[in-house]
Structure formats: C-alpha cells, structure tokens
Amino acid sequence: MTQVQATAPGKLYIAGEYAVVDGAAAIVAAVNRYVKVTVDDENLRCENTQENLRENLCENASNRRKYYGIITSEGENYKPFYWSRDLDGNIFYRDDLDSEDSAKSYSYVLAAMRVVDAYASEIYAPNCNRNVYNLHISSELDDAKSGKKYGLGSSAAVTVAVVRALCKWYGLKLETSTISKLSLIVSSTVKKSGSGGDVAASSLGGVILYRAYNREWLEAELSLINSGDSDFDKLLHKKWPRLEIKRINVPETLKLLVGWTGSPASSAELVSSVESSVESSEKSTASFTYQTFFEQSEICVQKLAQSLENFELDDISSGFAKNRELLQKLSALTGTIIETPKLTQLIEDADFVGIPAKTSGAGGGDCGIAITKIYENNRIESMKSAWKNHGIEPLNIEIAENASDGESPENQASRTIQHRKDEHMKLADEQYSAYANSGFDSVRFMPNALPQVALEEVDSSVRVFARVNSSVFESAAAATTQATAADSPATAAANWRSPLYINAMTGGSVRAQKVNAQLARVAAKTGVAMASGSLSAALRDGALASTFSVIRSENPRGFVMANVSAGTSASDAMRAVSMLQANALQVHLNAAQELVMPEGDRDFRNWLKNIEQIVRECEAARVPVIVKETGCGMTARDVLRLRDVGVRAVDVSGRGGTNFVAIENARRARDGYSYLADWGLTTVESLIDIRKCEALKSNPVEIFASGGVRTPLDVVRALALGASAVGVAGEFLHTLMHEGEDALTQQIADWQEQIRVIMALLGCKTVADLREKTEFVHADCLGK
Prior knowledge:
Layout: E1 3-15, E2 26-40, E3 45-48, E4 65-73, E5 81-85, E6 91-93, H1 100-105, H2 107-122, E7 134-139, H3 154-169, H4 176-190, H5 197-204, E8 207-211, H6 215-226, H7 232-237, E9 244-248, E10 254-260, H8 267-280, H9 290-310, H10 313-334, H11 341-352, E11 357-359, E12 367-373, H12 377-389, E13 393-395, H13 409-431, E14 462-464, E15 494-496, E16 500-502, H14 510-526, E17 529-531, H15 536-540, H16 546-554, E18 560-565, H17 570-580, E19 584-589, H18 591-596, H19 607-620, E20 625-629, H20 636-644, E21 649-651, H21 660-667, H22 683-691, H23 695-698, E22 702-706, H24 712-720, E23 725-728, H25 730-739, H26 741-761, H27 767-773
Parallel strand pairs: 4-7, 16-17, 16-23, 17-18, 18-19, 19-20, 20-21, 21-22, 22-23
Antiparallel strand pairs: 1-2, 2-7, 2-8, 3-4, 4-5, 5-6, 8-9, 10-12, 10-13, 11-12, 14-15
C-alpha cells in the first residue's frame, strides 16, 4: 500500500473584510486547527466493466477491471463517494451509487483532483501514472462532537490540504507559492466570487497581508487552458495581476485570542448581501459610499500591518477601532448585519480590560478576535471570564506559524528558507530594468580612429587569482580553452578564455535547483566561470545541498565558485567548497540586506575575524577567496581593511544591478525602507575610488566588478577601469526566465564576440591593453 498525508490550517481574518473581495488589502492569520487529508490505494473497489460486478474478479479477467476510489469525510452529512476514471483518464462518478448532492458536498475536493491531475500530467510528474486512490478527510476546524461550526475556513483548508496531498501522491515537490496558486485556481473554479485570502493563509501559514488576484484575468486564463491554448504550468509561472501575498512578521510575544458567539454565519451569503446592496445604492449621494469604505479600508489595513509587525498595541487598538467603524458604516449603508449583539459584547468585554478586539471575517456571528501580549495573564483571564458570563466561548486557538502541523521543525525551517529564496528570484525578476543606474553610461572612451589591430589578433582571455598569495599558491598550468582550473577543482591561478562570468544568483529551493542546472549547462557550453548563490541554506539543511551541487553535476570541468556569508565559520566555508567541489570561494557582504530583511541578522561584529579565518583555511587548501558585496559597492577603505586580514581579491558589486535592499523591503508588510533603495556606491564609483587609492597601487588587491552590467560595452568599461573580470547576474537571469536556456547561451556567446569587437575598436589586443592604453573622456574624473 502507498499512503501520503498532508495538512492545512484554518484561518481568521484580522482586518480588511469585504473590501478584499474587490482588490483592497486584508490581513489574514492561519490558526492551529487543521484539516488532514490521507491518500492511499488500499482496498480499492473494482468491478467488471461488462458485468457491472463490484466484487473481485478472477485473475484472467483482471484486464477488464475498473477500479473505484472512495472519498470519505468525518464531517457530519458527508456520505462515502465513489469515483473512477474513463478510458481517457478523466474523473467521473457513478450516478447509480452517488447523487449530485454528494458530488456538490465534495465540490472542492473534486475540483482539486482535476486541477492537480492536469498539472501532474503536463509536467510529467514522477508518479503521474498512478490511477485511482482513496481520499479521506478529517478536520479539527469544527467541534465534531457537538457539531459547532466556528467559521475557520474549512473549504479553503480542505482545498489546500487536498492539493498538497495529491502533489505528494504524484511525487511533486512544489514551492509554497505554487501550492498556493494551484489552490487559488481550484477555489476559483468552485466559487468565482471569493477573494482567496483564506486559501493564501492556509497555504502559507502565519499572518499575511493579502491582496486578491484579478478574477476576470484568471477566468480568461482558465478559458485558454480549457481551449488548449495554454496550460497550468504556464499559468503558475506567470505574474498574476494584483495578487499580493506578504508575510507579516509578528513577534512571538503576540497573543491572539478568539471568542465564538455561538451563532454560525455564512460568509458567502453575507458578502453576496453586501454586494447586492452596494449595486442598488451605487447612485446614492450619501457622504459615505462603498468606494469610500474601500479606500479607507486599504489605508486602515496598511497601517495595521505595520502596527502588528512593530507590535505597537496602541496603534493596533486604533486600527481595530477604525476597522470596526468602517464595518459599521458599511452595515448601515447596505442593511447587512455585520456586528451582532454578541460580537458587540465580545468587543466591549475586551475593551473594558484594555485589550484591542474586533469582529473577524464577514461577521453576522461566528468569531471575534482580540490581540495582546502573552504575559498579560490577568487581563486575559478577566476578559475570558467576562466572555463566558455573556455566553461567548473562548477558543483555544493560536496563530499557526507554519502551513502544516505534520512537518518537523527542521522541515518547516527548510520550507521557510525555500520560500524566501523563491521570493528573491521572483522579486529580482520583477525589479529588472534594461537600463541600470550603475554609472557605466558616464564612462566614455576616447575613440581610436587608427586601431592598428586585426580582430583575429584580439585575445580577451584573462588570468585570474595570479595575485592571490603567490607565495602560497603554485603557478597554474598553461592557458586552457575555457574557464577551468588547471588540474583539479582546487588550484590557485586560473585562465579564463573570457573576462565574463555568471555571478551569484540562487539556490536553496526546487525552483532554484532548476535555474542552477540551466545556468551550469550554459556555463559549460560557453566556457564561462560561474558562482553559486549563497550556500547558507544548504549548510543549515543538507537536504537542500542538491539545489547547489547540481552546478557541478551539470558542469563537471568548469570553473565554479561557491558562495557563503561573512558570518559563516571557516569550517562551514570549507564544507561549502566541498559541496560544489569549488575552484574558488566568494564570501558575500550584505549588511544592508540583512538589516532590511525582516528575519535578517543584526550583528556583524565578527565578520572581519571570520573572513580572516576563512582566508587562512582556504589558502591552505589552495582555494582562492573573493570577498564580494551584494549591490552596495566597496570603497578603497573597505578593500584596505580586507587586505589587512589577508584578502587578495574582491568583487565590488556596486549599486545599479539587483537591489537586495529593495527586494527585502518589498517582502516587508510595509515598505518602510524605500529611502534606502539607492544606498551605496555604483560599480563605477567603486572602481574609481579604488583606482585613486595610492596604498593599493603598491600592494594591489585583485578587483572583480559586477552590479548593473547590461551590455558588452559595460564589461569593457569595467575592465578598462581595473577589473580583472566582470560578473553578470540580473541580465542573464532575466534572459533565462523569459527566453530560456538556448537564448542565454546565445546571448553570452554574442557578448564574448562583441567584447573582442570593442577591444579591436579601441586598438587593444589584450585585456591588459585596455587598462594601459585606453583613454577616457573626462579622464581626470575617472582616476586615469
């Protein structure tokens, strides 16, 4: 027997109810009551297709058997439901066994089965040939004994749990964002008017800021799929208009309190009632309209999200009060009862002891919520006692920080890392611009009307790391035809046939593994060196190692650079080198990113000491070390400090390319650090500052350049300003994600040729000539 299980949490709305349906932001929390789905193939029922028998048949007739799976639920009024497949593999159920009413009861389950089936077939899932299965649903969202329904979003949790379980069944290891989109697709096919906030919370866990996708757009996309003009894989990788899902990083000291009024409410009916009333009152001249409600709700939710992240209880209280006021006005405008007397009592009881409270969701009954600090025990107990006295049941519910209770803490942490890595890639691609404000446009060459060279004479190969502690390293072998080490993955100086390399990008998730594999194949075909993304994720979780080591698997003879943070220990740095069988090691500096990142590091006191120890360990192993910024540039002072601890190579990685400060700011609930988007030096400013430093002329450090490189001319400019080689990340990632692997291979080949053309145009036969013979317009400003 094969069996898989998956879970998904329920949800509660914190703020933004009603307006979220039309595209305003809302705050939704996942709660620690779960739906569990079990899928197995035990005791499948079978029948003879000719004789319509449900009993097992003799072995010689087994080829005529049709197997039936059974869907069951522990919920009240859910009957066993038998289903099978037709000759084309489509799901169907037998009218003589199951009524249409039963099918409607399992509408979300059947929709999830069809969507995941189609997606698994499209991408040739490892186990897509698995046929019929049993599916069992159990739920903690409601009280099974009493039949009480608490309004915790059962349809969304069931949808997510079924999608997650079937993906496991078919052997699909999908990112959380993909699970979320698949579940939103399923939900939209059953209930077209829903916002999807409940689905997003059940998919991601924790507290999220959510903005609904454009429903008309998704409906049109699904129509294209139904007509055969598109598919689910394409849809899942598209940017969905308006969709926004951001984690709000609430502190551990936040306590969510939930009270149930004893009156179940139908959110769908309440939302429908409001929508109908809004349509009939659109011509109203009243001062408060639905549009006013919509706009003020957006402002309120954004402020409240910031208050939750900063955990400012006074601001949370003000936000709850404003949200309550808006819902009361909406209730008066539409004639829909949102805040029932019991909910009013719940809020007043909380307010009396100084705890912010409000209705949750569509109102009309169900639950109210309150938020305070975990150590306010006296206030909490006083409020709960008042609730009980007024017939309100306190529920033992907390925020579910993770979307599944069936995972170990290690797996949960791994999934969080993978989600962050995928967010980085997505945001980096969205941030891309063909124009980069990296300063390269200010670097203008004096033309050479008489270059006195033939293109065939131009050699753009470079020898790198020759300066890296030559007393320790032996000279490398003679020049090779591509970016490789002379004999083994760990030697010193190396010869690259091109001054171009693929710089650090990604790793640490399933999607990142695919990208790294593609980049590695491109590097192998074009002969350029390649750096991995930060291996911190793999050092924490060995299961993620393959998302990086695929680089070496796909490019066994290429020059590969591993990448670790400056906070990494020397022993872990060597583990990273070993993981990739790396030829060199990048150590990245990203203080600005870490400080803006909600979950980032805040202590950088040991960075320089760590770097010194890493350099010593790597030198002993003949592995060159490059200390690399991540988009904020380096000053000559930075380089001198690094040189003093033994560093012999740096990558200035200046402002103008992928902006990790902006990326991390975009991941926050509110973009509170937008003013730091231009922090640091551009690549050109960094190169000029280093060129002008007299102390670095007598005892130089090898300089690599990256950050905002968009053209072969930018590469040549950086080389002429003193770089040994030039790294490109954002430009190449954009090409790969939008045009594919072959297009990137061609782009790099074109750049390699065009670099030689520009060198010939300047009359330079070698990269050394670029540094020594070229002249610039306004040369005094460029330190030359």
